[in-house]
Design goal:
It contains two helices and two strands. It is an alpha+beta fold. The chain starts with 17 loop residues before the first helix and ends with a strand.
Length: 87
């Protein structure tokens, strides 16, 4: 996961050298054969649960957040996804 890479300073994305942090391969899920895909569940965005989730992200209560932002952007509201439990 890209967000797991250690952050660098200035314009540097990572503290690792380029060879250590390069993406080796990537596939678009639609190109993966159905039998090899990970079954996922995604939180629907047209529900009261999602609305409450967005509001919680808009005005975070953790100690690091001293002043509520009062707004959100696409980076502040990661869509909740999980692997579908086996039947």
């Amino acid at each position: 996961m890209l967000s797991d890479l250690p952050r660098g300073t200035g314009r540097s994305v990572t503290t690792r050298n380029r060879a250590e942090s390069s993406i080796k391969s990537m596939r678009v899920a639609a190109d993966v054969p159905a039998s090899q895909r990970t079954e996922l569940e995604v939180l629907r965005t047209d529900t009261p649960t999602f609305t409450a989730y967005v509001e919680a992200r808009r005005n975070r209560r953790e100690e690091w957040f001293k002043v509520p932002a009062g707004h959100v952007d696409v980076c502040n509201v990661p869509i909740v996804v999980r692997a579908r439990p086996a039947k």
